[in-house]
Design a protein that fits this description.
Helix content is 63%, strand content 2%. By secondary structure, it is an all-alpha fold. A two-stranded antiparallel sheet has the order 1-2. Strands 3-4 form a two-stranded antiparallel sheet. Helix 6 (154-173) runs antiparallel to helix 18 and helix 11 (276-290) packs parallel to helix 13. The radius of gyration is 26 Å and the shape is globular. The two termini are 27 Å apart. The relative contact order is 0.12.
Length: 526
């Protein structure tokens, strides 16, 4: 993995006699005279040159042709169809011109409309996330095929592919019948979500693109928090109608749209994430990225802006009543504090004292303590799930029992499932798959450790590396009490996109050197 200091090698001075032919390198004329092959042309190939020179013209011509065709279609069909297609084509064209836009759009959909499906029914109903994920893969694949990029993170790429291969093999050999049903589609989405680390790590090629992605994650997370707070505060009948309005996009309707703490009438914030625990996982991630920005010497924006974005994230996280997300954000802050910002430990201590002594915090403190002591129905159900998972794993340790009959939410009846990402993998794909999954994280951690140590003492610290490590660590801690980061495509994609971001950040030198077309480039001084 490219995590060390990139050395700029000066070209060696040649002592050979120059060629008598000015258009060819030394020795190549003699080779041609002897009937040998002409020297291979250096530099980008013709395909790469054509794309670099004519991509704008190609996009314009293609757009004109598409506009004519769509205009004909709109005369026979609803204008919604061509309008949606035009918007999609424009977005795809911009994504190929500016790959970071595809990444920003992906995290935006993950935060705001993670379950929204395309409202046009043309035989299939892909989600917006499916389309954007495909675009991200297509953009990087084209860059790879045309020589504009290369595989720069061989160890993480190999381990991610290996772990996914083990899980796919277990799925194919599992007792569940193989068919193109919803289980197969969900499994494919989750598998591709794990592999999103590959294109993301390669498309983020400099500090500016990394800052843009991290800033987008924080902003859209804050927006989703505001949505969740707003739906929490408005009258419940209005909140229900607003959420039911998302039915054309595939969102559920019915009595379970609004979510409550089990056995109580205490409402939980859900935003547009359907489940309060999934909203909590999202807000935890955004909070873990935002908190280091308050202490960084060179944050991506001013501290007042960070505070304004972080405030709704914190409030929304409290209103989710998601104890696992509270604990995972605390773990993320502790990780960042251990690596560099020791003052965060003081903040954790003060926050703990306020939670104990403030009367306004008693509701949340008692809820957390009841979960830690397994005194309520939700936490006791989790203990039953763990015992059930142990029985299933011992009965099918090698290939698991398959990914069918996905367990439902914690306040409903569970069938086959456990609120733990590690037991979920072992239960559904076997112990070898769990070992492969953990090996990916170990490989990434060992490869990034030099970069993490540099970030802990870096003078011009932007908080990105430590924030990313904290978010990943928080997600892995959350995996002890929830299964969302291996079961739901949007959170799986978010976790591994952040992992790709951290890999890309680790590959950038302290002096701002980035990688362009597979070669180190010096960034301009700011």
């Amino acid at each position: 993995m490219a995590s060390g200091i990139v050395l700029a090698i000066e070209p060696m001075v040649s002592t050979s006699r120059p060629s008598p032919h000015p258009a060819l390198p030394a020795g190549s004329l003699r080779q041609a005279d002897q009937g040998g092959l002409a020297p291979r042309r250096e530099g980008p190939g013709p395909t790469h040159e054509w794309i670099s020179t004519h991509r704008i013209s190609a996009v314009i011509v293609g757009s004109l042709v598409a506009s004519v065709l769509l205009g004909l279609v709109s005369g026979a069909v609803s204008p919604l169809v061509p309008g949606s297609v035009v918007a999609s084509l424009i977005g795809i064209a911009l994504a190929f011109l500016y790959p970071t836009l595809a990444l920003a759009g992906t995290v935006g959909v993950i935060a705001i409309l993670p379950f929204a499906v395309v409202p046009l029914r043309l035989g299939v109903a892909p989600t917006f996330l499916d389309i954007l994920t495909a675009v991200v893969w297509a953009v990087w694949t084209v860059r790879l095929a045309t020589g504009r990029d290369r595989v720069r993170f061989p160890a993480p790429v190999f381990m991610a592919c290996l772990a996914t291969g083990v899980v796919v093999t277990s799925y194919l050999a599992s007792p569940d019948p193989l068919s193109l049903n919803e289980t197969a589609r969900m499994f494919a989405k989750v598998s591709l979500g794990h592999l999103i680390v590959i294109p993301v790590a390669h498309l983020l090629r400099d500090r500016a693109s990394i800052h843009g992605l991290v800033g987008t994650v924080i902003v859209v997370t804050s927006i989703e928090a505001v949505i969740g707070i707003g739906l929490y505060l408005v009258p419940r009948d209005i909140a229900y109608r607003l959420l039911a309005a998302l039915e054309p996009l595939g969102y559920p309707v019915g009595d379970t749209v609004l979510r409550y703490r089990p056995d109580t009438d205490i409402l939980r914030a859900i935003g547009t994430s359907i489940d309060p625990n999934m909203l909590g996982a999202l807000l935890m991630t955004g909070g873990a990225l935002a908190i280091p920005q308050l202490l960084a010497t060179h944050p991506i924006w001013s501290r007042p802006v960070t505070i304004a974005l972080l405030a709704p994230i914190a409030m929304g996280l409290l209103l989710t009543e998601s104890r696992g997300s509270w604990l995972s954000l605390g773990a993320a802050v502790m990780i960042v504090g251990a690596l560099r910002y020791r003052r965060l430990w003081v903040v954790i201590g003060v926050a703990g004292a306020l939670a104990v002594f403030l009367p306004q915090a008693q509701r949340f403190t008692e809820h957390l303590l009841s979960g830690l002591q397994a005194q309520d129905r939700a936490s006791s159900m989790r203990l039953d799930e763990i015992r059930n998972a142990y029985t299933i794993i011992t009965g099918a340790p090698w290939i698991g029992v398959g990914w069918g009959i996905v367990g439902r939410s914690i306040d409903l009846e569970f069938t086959r499932g456990v609120s733990n990402i590690y037991l979920t993998i072992a239960q559904r794909s076997g112990i070898p798959a769990l070992v492969a999954y953990l090996s990916v994280w170990v490989t990434i951690a060992l490869g990034m450790w030099p970069a993490i140590r540099r970030a802990s003492v870096e003078v011009r610290d932007d908080g990105i590396m430590l924030g990313g490590i904290g978010a990943i660590g928080g997600a892995l801690v959350a995996g002890m009490v929830d299964h969302h980061f291996v079961s739901f495509p949007h959170l799986v994609t978010l976790l591994w996109a952040l992992t790709g971001m951290v890999l890309a950040r680790a590959a950038i030198n302290l002096d701002g050197t980035s990688v362009v077309n597979g070669a180190p480039q010096r960034a301009s001084a700011k």
